[in-house]
C-alpha cells in the first residue's frame, strides 16, 4: 500500500503524471520540495554501493584481523565467554546460553552461524590449539554433526585466557555494539600470534584467505627473535618455523611452495596421509593409515576407497575397514596376495584425499584494509600490537599505582593526626559535612563543629597537631580523593591500620611506579617484557610438531625400490596386462612344445608381447591414434601363469579404445629421435620423440586416423633409416625414411604402401641406411624374420627387397598357402637374436633365430612352434641383446 504522505516519484526524465496532464503537485518544477531531488548516475551508485558492501563483508565477516587472528564472530564469542566468567577453571555452561548472550549483545546474526563457529573453536581436529573447552558431542573427523546447542556445554580453554589477558586494563579500543547498548572490543590483546598458530580460512568478495595452522613453539620462538631484532626478516623467521603444523598430523611435501607462501603470501604444497604396512595372514600385506590430511573427512575417504575397488579402478584391494578408537586413527586397507603395496599407495594418492594440495593465501585485515602478507610481516604486525598493548597496560598500571600512592599518603597523614581525624568525623553531622570539614582542616583553616554534642567547639589545626609538632599546612593537605578513601573505611579499621603496613605498601607501590616509568621510557625494557610473556606462553602451551615436512626431492620414488631388470610384458586380447621376469623363459630348441606363459580364459588369448627394463616408460598407443604413458614397474608381477591386470585400471582409456602397440623408451627427451607410425591402410608418419614428453592422464593425440583406419605399428627411428612394411597377404615395401617429412602429433601422415582392398599392413620394421662391415669382412646381418599364423617362419636378407619410393605396391615377401597361413608378424633380427613366439591360447616359445633357415622372398618358411589345430600365432617379438648375455640352462621338456 502506497504511503499517502510520500507518493511515488516519477522516473527521471518522465514528464507525464500518468494522466496526460502536465506534471503538478509537489514534484512539479518550482513546487516546494523539488530542489531536494538529486540525479544520480546508476552506474556510479551501484559501484559505490557494491564497494561498501564488499568492504563490509571483508572487514566485518570473512577475513581475520592480523593482530589477534580472529574474525568478528570469533572475537565476540570469546568476549561473551569472558563477560560470563566462563574461565577454564569455572563450571561449564550450556552453549545455548552463550549463543543467546553473544547474539543479543554483540552479533545480531543467526544463532546457527554463531553455534557453528563456537563448535569449530572447540574441535581439536579443526584448530591446532582449540580456544573453547566443549563438553558433549562437538562433531568428529568423520563429519558427524555436533549435538544441538541445548545439549552441549562450553567454557574457555586456558590458552583462550591468553587471548583476553589484560583486556580490562584499557589495552585495546572499545566500540559501541550494534544497538549502542554496550561496548565491545575492536581487537583482543592476544598474547599469542593466533593468526599464524591457529590459521584461518574465509571467502570474501573478490578475495579469500587460507592460512594453515603452525606449531606454537616455533612461531613464538620466531616472534621472540623479531622482538629482539626489529630489523629481522624472513631469514630469521625460517630459522625457527619449519612450516605448517596441522592438528591431524600427516606429511607435507613441497618446501619450495611453503617458502613461496612465506615470502610472497601465496604458495602451494601437498599434504599426505601417514601410512605404514603390516603383514597379515596368508602372506598378504595391509596398508595402515594413522593420520590423514587436514580437513579431510575420514568416512568419506573410506567410502572413496571402496568405490574405487567396486569400479575396478584399483583391483589389488581385498578389504577396507575403519578400526579407529579412542587411542587414535587406524584405517586398514588389505591387499591381495602378491600386490606391490607402493603401487597401490600411489594409486590411492592419485585417486583419493590421502593426498591433497593446500593453497596458502596469507590474507588478513591490516589497518582496516585487506593485505597479502609475507610471514615475517604478519609477525611484525603482531609485535607492533603487543608493543601497543604492553605500553597501554603499563600506562594504566602506572596510573593505578600513582592513585594508590596518593591514597596511601592520605592514610599516612590521617594516621599521623588520628585524634583530629576522629574528632572531626564524630563532630560532623553527615558524610558530606565530614568530607568538607576534613578538607578545610587539612588545608590549614580553623573550623567550628556544629550539629552535635560538640556544638560550637572550634578546632585549630595548629593546636591539634599530634605531639604539638607544627607542620606546614601544605604538607597536611588532603585531597578529596584521599578523604573519600578515609571516610570509606569503618572507624575501627581506621584505628587498626598500622603505619608500618602503610609504609611497606607505599614503598612497594613506589617501586612499581619506578618500574612502570622505566618501561615506558625504554623501548628495550618494554620489549623485554613482551619476550618474558612470550616465553611464559611457549613454556606453558608449546608442544612437539605433529606434521612432518619433506622436500620434494626427499620423497622416495618407487623406482628406488624396484630392481632394474629385463621383464616380459604381455597383453591379452581382453586387455589384461602383466609383467614377468624374462629369466623364467628358458631357451628351447626349434619346434619345441613351449610352456604356458599366461593363463587365459577360453574366449581370451595373448595378443602382444614386449620385453624391456622395469624402469622404462611404456608409450601405449591405441587403435584410435591416442597415446598413454605408463611405467613398466607399475604393471603387477603376477607370475608366469597369472592372468594380469586390466588396462582399464592402469590407463584412463576412452570408450571404445584398445591398446594396439606398446613402445618401451628410457629417455623421452632424447634429441634426434622420432616415432614412426604405420596404419592398417598403409599410411605412415613420423613425429619427434620430444613431442610426447608431457603426457596427460587422459592421453594425447599421437596421430590423426580416419574412422575406417587404425594404428598397426610404431617404431623409434633416427630419421635416416630404411622403413619396411609387410602386408597380411605376403607383400612388402622398403623405402627411405627421409621420404617422410616430420609432422606434428595431430597430423594424419602420407601414403606408405599402396595395398589392395582385401589386404592390410601387419608389421613395420626400420633398418639402418648403411650396413656396417666387421673385422672379419662380413657385413652385419639385417634379416627380416616373417612369422605366419600357422607357426611357420623364415629369415630373408633386407637387401633382397629392392629399395623403392614410398607409396608403391611393393614386392613379394612370403609365399602364403593353407599350410603356412597368412603373414602374422615381422621382426628385424640378426645372427645373435632370440625370438619369442606366442600363440592365441597362451603358448610361448623362446627360439635362437639362427636356427631358423635363411630363405628367399618367395618361400613358405619352416615350422617354429607346434600348434593345436585351432590355435594360431598371436605375436612374435625379439628379445633385446642385453638379455642374451645370460647363460640360461635348457629346460627339460
Looking at this protein, list some descriptive labels.
893 residues, alpha+beta, Topoisomerase II, domain 5, Gyrase A, domain 2, Topoisomerase, domain 3, 43 strands, 24% strand, elongated, disordered N terminus
TL;DR of this structure?
With 893 residues, this protein is an alpha+beta fold. It folds into four domains: 70-189, Alpha-Beta Complex (Topoisomerase II, domain 5), CATH 3.90.199; 274-353, Gyrase A, domain 2 (2-Layer Sandwich); 388-521, Topoisomerase, domain 3 (Orthogonal Bundle), CATH 1.10.268; 574-771 and 779-885, 6 Propeller (Neuraminidase).
Find the structural class using helix and strand composition: alpha+beta
Radius of gyration: 45 Å
Taking pLDDT < 50 over at least 5 consecutive residues as the criterion, the unreliable ranges are: 1-30, 449-457, 463-475, 593-603, 882-893
Number of helices: 19
**Which fold name is given in CATH as the topology of the largest domain?**
Neuraminidase
Strand order of the largest sheet: 14-9-8-19
Residues in β-strands, percent = 15-25%
Biggest β-sheet strands, sense, barrel: 4 strands, mixed
Number of DSSP strand runs = 43
- Helical content stands at 25-40%
CATH architecture of the largest domain: 6 Propeller
| Shape annotation | elongated
Mean pLDDT value: 83
CATH class of the largest domain: Mainly Beta
CATH superfamily of the largest domain: DNA gyrase/topoisomerase IV, subunit A, C-terminal
Please tell me the total number of domains.
Answer: 4
Give the N-to-C terminal Cα separation.
103 Å
Amino acid at each position: 500500500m502506497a504511503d499517502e504522505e510520500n507518493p511515488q516519484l516519477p522516473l527521471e526524465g518522465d514528464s507525464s503524471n500518468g494522466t496526460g496532464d502536465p506534471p503538478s503537485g509537489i514534484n512539479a518544477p518550482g513546487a516546494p520540495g523539488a530542489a531536494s531531488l538529486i540525479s544520480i548516475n546508476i552506474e556510479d551508485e551501484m559501484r559505490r554501493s557494491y564497494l561498501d558492501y564488499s568492504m563490509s563483508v571483508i572487514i566485518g565477516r570473512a577475513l581475520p584481523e592480523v593482530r589477534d587472528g580472529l574474525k568478528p564472530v570469533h572475537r565476540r564469542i570469546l568476549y561473551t565467554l569472558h563477560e560470563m566468567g566462563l574461565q577454564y577453571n569455572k563450571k561449564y555452561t550450556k552453549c545455548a546460553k552463550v549463543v543467546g548472550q553473544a547474539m543479543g549483545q554483540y552479533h545480531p546474526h543467526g544463532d546457527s552461524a554463531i553455534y557453528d563457529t563456537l563448535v569449530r573453536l572447540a574441535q581439536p581436529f579443526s584448530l591446532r590449539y582449540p580456544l573453547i573447552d566443549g563438553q558433549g558431542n562437538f562433531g568428529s573427523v568423520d563429519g558427524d554433526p555436533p549435538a544441538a546447542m541445548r545439549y552441549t556445554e562450553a567454557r574457555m580453554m586456558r590458552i583462550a585466557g591468553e587471548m583476553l589477558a589484560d583486556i580490562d586494563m584499557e589495552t585495546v579500543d572499545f566500540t559501541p555494539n550494534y544497538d549502542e547498548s554496550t561496548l565491545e572490543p575492536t581487537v583482543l590483546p592476544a598474547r599469542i600470534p593466533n593468526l599464524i598458530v591457529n590459521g584461518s580460512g574465509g571467502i570474501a568478495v573478490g578475495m579469500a584467505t587460507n592460512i594453515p595452522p603452525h606449531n606454537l613453539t616455533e612461531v613464538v620462538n620466531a616472534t621472540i627473535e623479531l622482538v629482539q631484532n626489529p630489523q629481522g626478516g624472513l631469514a630469521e623467521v625460517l630459522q625457527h618455523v619449519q612450516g605448517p603444523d596441522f592438528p591431524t598430523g600427516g606429511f607435507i611435501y613441497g618446501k619450495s611452495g611453503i617458502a613461496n607462501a612465506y615470502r610472497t603470501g601465496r604458495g602451494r604444497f601437498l599434504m599426505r596421509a601417514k601410512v605404514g604396512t603390516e603383514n597379515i595372514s596368508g602372506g598378504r600385506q595391509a596398508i595402515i593409515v594413522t593420520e590423514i590430511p587436514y580437513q579431510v573427512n575420514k568416512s568419506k575417504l573410506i567410502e572413496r576407497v571402496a568405490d574405487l575397488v567396486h569400479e575396478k579402478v584399483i583391483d589389488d584391494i581385498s578389504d577396507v575397514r575403519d578400526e579407529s578408537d579412542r587411542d587414535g586413527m587406524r584405517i586398514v586397507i588389505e591387499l591381495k596376495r602378491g600386490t606391490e603395496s607402493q603401487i597401490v599407495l600411489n594409486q590411492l594418492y592419485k585417486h583419493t584425499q590421502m593426498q591433497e594440495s593446500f593453497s596458502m593465501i596469507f590474507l588478513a585485515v591490516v589497518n582496516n584494509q585487506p593485505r597479502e602478507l609475507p610471514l615475517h610481516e604478519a609477525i611484525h604486525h603482531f609485535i607492533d600490537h603487543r608493543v601497543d598493548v604492553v605500553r597501554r597496560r603499563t600506562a594504566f598500571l602506572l596510573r593505578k599505582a600513582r592513585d594508590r600512592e596518593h591514597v596511601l599518603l592520605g592514610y599516612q597523614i590521617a594516621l599521623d593526626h588520628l585524634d583530629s581525624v576522629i574528632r572531626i568525623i564524630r563532630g560532623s553531622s553527615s558524610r558530606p559535612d565530614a568530607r568538607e570539614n576534613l578538607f578545610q582542616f587539612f588545608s590549614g583553616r580553623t573550623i567550628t563543629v556544629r550539629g552535635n554534642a560538640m556544638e560550637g567547639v572550634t578546632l585549630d589545626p595548629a593546636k591539634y597537631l599530634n605531639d604539638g609538632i607544627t607542620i606546614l599546612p601544605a604538607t597536611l593537605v588532603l585531597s578529596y580523593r584521599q578523604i573519600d578513601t578515609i571516610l570509606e573505611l569503618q572507624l575501627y579499621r581506621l584505628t587498626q591500620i598500622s603505619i608500618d603496613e602503610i609504609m611497606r605498601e607505599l614503598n612497594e607501590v613506589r617501586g612499581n611506579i619506578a618500574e612502570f616509568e622505566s618501561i615506558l621510557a625504554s623501548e628495550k625494557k618494554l620489549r623485554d617484557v613482551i619476550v618474558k610473556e612470550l616465553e611464559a606462553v611457549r613454556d606453558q602451551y608449546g608442544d612437539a610438531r605433529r606434521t612432518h615436512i619433506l622436500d620434494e626431492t626427499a620423497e622416495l620414488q618407487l623406482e628406488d625400490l624396484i630392481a632394474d631388470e629385463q621383464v616380459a610384458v604381455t597383453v591379452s586380447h581382453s586387455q589384461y596386462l602383466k609383467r614377468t621376469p624374462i629369466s623364467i623363459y628358458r631357451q628351447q630348441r626349434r619346434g619345441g612344445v613351449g610352456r604356458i606363459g599366461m593363463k587365459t580364459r577360453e574366449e581370451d588369448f595373448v595378443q602382444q608381447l614386449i620385453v624391456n627394463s622395469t624402469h622404462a616408460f611404456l608409450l601405449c598407443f591405441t587403435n584410435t591414434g591416442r597415446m598413454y604413458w605408463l611405467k613398466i614397474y607399475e604393471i603387477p608381477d603376477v607370475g608366469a601363469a597369472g592372468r594380469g591386470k586390466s588396462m582399464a585400471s592402469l590407463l584412463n582409456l576412452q570408450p571404445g579404445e584398445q591398446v594396439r602397440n606398446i613402445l618401451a623408451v628410457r629417455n623421452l627427451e632424447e634429441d634426434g629421435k622420432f616415432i614412426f607410425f604405420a596404419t592398417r591402410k598403409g599410411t605412415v608418419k613420423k613425429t619427434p620423440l620430444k613431442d610426447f614428453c608431457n603426457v596427460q592422464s587422459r592421453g594425447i593425440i599421437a596421430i590423426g586416423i580416419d574412422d575406417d583406419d587404425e594404428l598397426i605399428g610404431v617404431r623409434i627411428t633416427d630419421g635416416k633409416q630404411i622403413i619396411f612394411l609387410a602386408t597380411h597377404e605376403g607383400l612388402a615395401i622398403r623405402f627411405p625414411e627421409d621420404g617422410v617429412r616430420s609432422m606434428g602429433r595431430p597430423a594424419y601422415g602420407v601414403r606408405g604402401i599402396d595395398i589392395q582392398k582385401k589386404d592390410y599392413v601387419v608389421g613395420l620394421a626400420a633398418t639402418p641406411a648403411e650396413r656396417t662391415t666387421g673385422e672379419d669382412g662380413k657385413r652385419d646381418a639385417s634379416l627380416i624374420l616373417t612369422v605366419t599364423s600357422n607357426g611357420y617362419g623364415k629369415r630373408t636378407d633386407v637387401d633382397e627387397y629392392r629399395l623403392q619410393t614410398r607409396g608403391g605396391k611393393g614386392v613379394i615377401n612370403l609365399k602364403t598357402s593353407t599350410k603356412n597361413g597368412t603373414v602374422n608378424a615381422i621382426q628385424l633380427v640378426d645372427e645373435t637374436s632370440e625370438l619369442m613366439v606366442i600363440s592365441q591360447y597362451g603358448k610361448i616359445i623362446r627360439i635362437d633365430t639362427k636356427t631358423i633357415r635363411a630363405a628367399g622372398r618367395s618361400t613358405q618358411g619352416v615350422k617354429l612352434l607346434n600348434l593345436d589345430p585351432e590355435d594360431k600365432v598371436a605375436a612374435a617379438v625379439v628379445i633385446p641383446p642385453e638379455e642374451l648375455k645370460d647363460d640360461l640352462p635348457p629346460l627339460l621338456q
